[in-house]
């Protein structure tokens, strides 16, 4: 992602994945083949669930198709409007130890099956998240001058235009998974 660019997203609990797929197809969007993602989430020392995530950096280690990705997200406007940095790493275990040495601690493991599609500048993800359910994420990368909440309203209008029964959530996957495990 370019310097200063932010990832803005909206997330919805999906009640009927088949109906959603049909609605996407009517809009000319076909989902990719499923991929398995195994994510370990990390938080900065001193941060705990229940505290605001805004302004706090969070790390993630993801393994997908034998590749390991390190991601740092820092929520700015809200939990779904983040400054994001991501890079591939050669050794997941070594990166895990490095993250711990930087003062972060592991929070929850998020395992999911993801299917994706794109529509112009929008990225769509249909995720089946273990312990949490099925979700639709719609994301857009924007420049530093754009309002996260305004972009989220635009993304919400797009999702609502699909005409499917979904429930918007402002929780991130780590919070959703954790809520089912505690």
From TrEMBL:
Record-linked InterPro entries: Adenylyl_cyclase_CyaB (IPR008173), CYTH-like_dom_sf (IPR033469), CYTH_domain (IPR023577)
Start and end residues of each CYTH domain: 5-179
Family matches, as CDD domains: CYTH-like_AC_IV-like (cd07890)
Pfam families in the record: CYTH
The organism's place on the tree of life at top rank: Bacteria
Protein name per the record: Adenylate cyclase
Organism this protein belongs to: Carbonactinospora thermoautotrophica
Upper classification of the organism: Bacteria, Bacillati, Actinomycetota, Actinomycetes, Kitasatosporales
């Amino acid at each position: 992602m370019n310097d200063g660019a932010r990832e803005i997203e909206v997330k919805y609990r999906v009640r009927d994945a088949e109906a959603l797929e049909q609605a996407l197809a009517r809009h000319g969007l076909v989902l990719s083949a499923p991929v398995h993602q195994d994510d370990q989430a990390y938080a900065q020392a001193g941060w705990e669930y229940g505290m605001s995530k805004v302004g706090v950096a969070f790390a993630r280690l993801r393994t997908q198709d034998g590749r390991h990705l390190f991601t740092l997200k820092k929520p700015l406007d809200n939990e779904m409007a983040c400054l994001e940095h991501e890079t591939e790493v050669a050794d997941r275990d070594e990166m895990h130890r490095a993250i711990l040495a930087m003062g972060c601690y592991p929070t929850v493991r998020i395992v999911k099956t993801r299917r994706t599609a794109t529509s112009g500048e929008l990225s769509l993800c249909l995720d089946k998240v273990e312990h949490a359910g099925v979700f639709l994420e719609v994301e857009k990368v924007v420049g530093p001058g754009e309002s996260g909440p305004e972009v989220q309203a635009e993304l919400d209008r797009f999702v609502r235009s699909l005409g499917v029964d979904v429930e918007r959530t402002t929780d991130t996957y780590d919070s959703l998974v954790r809520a089912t495990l505690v």
